Amino acid sequence: MALTDNPSRDGPRLRGVIFDMDGVLVRSEPILAEAAIQMFAEKGFDVRHEEFRPFLGMGEDRYIGGVAEARGIRLDPERDKARTYALYLELIKGRLRALPGVHELVDECRRRGLRLAVASSADEIKVAGNLREIGLPPSTFDVVVHGDHVARKKPAPDIFLEATRRLGLEPSSCLVIEDAISGIAAAKAAGARCLAVTTSFPPERLAEADWIALGLDHVPAEALEW
């Protein structure tokens, strides 16, 4: 069921679909927060899950660093991020699952002849680990862009512009699927259309997207037929 849709088909034909990862393909943020909480605990700080929420979709440097900055905690960025990833990659084993509709939508996009990309602000180690764990290794997609590929993270459009460049497509012929407010802003700034899923935020917070759906098992037909 689509919560909202915009059936306009003016402009270029859809040729590519760009998936954000966290909150779209998987819901890994709670496990990442669990790992980061353990990392902070090892440093002697009691951090709560909700403290990470303002930094969703901004990449791990900001996800961890934003909480540290707000708390006045001194970090060794590379060492502490590496420790968080080491904890995370152990925690996801046997726990991480693709969100409903993910495999089916990837198959449907392939059937339609669309080019596919993943564009995530996360670092390569997390992107690759997540995709392998849910049975969609990086080779499933034509292009995988991660946070190490761009200097500016969302809401800057850079990651989606890089994905469209690597796909060989104009942004206006691509659909970005996002769950975060910063990701929607990035997609629109890049010149792409955007389908938002309500994994992380309620529909009223996602109003800038072209379509809003409950998840990838409820994608409105119009989002793939322009």
Could you characterize what this model shows?
The protein has 226 residues and is α/β, with parallel strands linked by helices. It folds into 2 domains: 2-27 and 97-224, 3-Layer(aba) Sandwich (Rossmann fold); 29-91. The protein is 36% helix and 12% strand. The chain has 7 helices and 7 strands. The protein has helices at 29-42, 60-71, 77-91, 102-111, 124-133, 158-167, 181-190; strands at residues 2-4, 16-19, 115-119, 143-145, 174-178, 193-197, 211-213. A 7-stranded mixed β-sheet has the order 1-7-6-5-2-3-4, with helices on both faces. The longest helix has 15 residues, at 77-91. It is globular, with a radius of gyration of 17 Å.
Q: What layout of secondary structure does this protein have?
A:
Elements: E1 2-4, E2 16-19, H1 29-42, H2 60-71, H3 77-91, H4 102-111, E3 115-119, H5 124-133, E4 143-145, H6 158-167, E5 174-178, H7 181-190, E6 193-197, E7 211-213
Parallel strand pairs: 2-3, 2-5, 3-4, 5-6, 6-7
Antiparallel strand pairs: 1-7
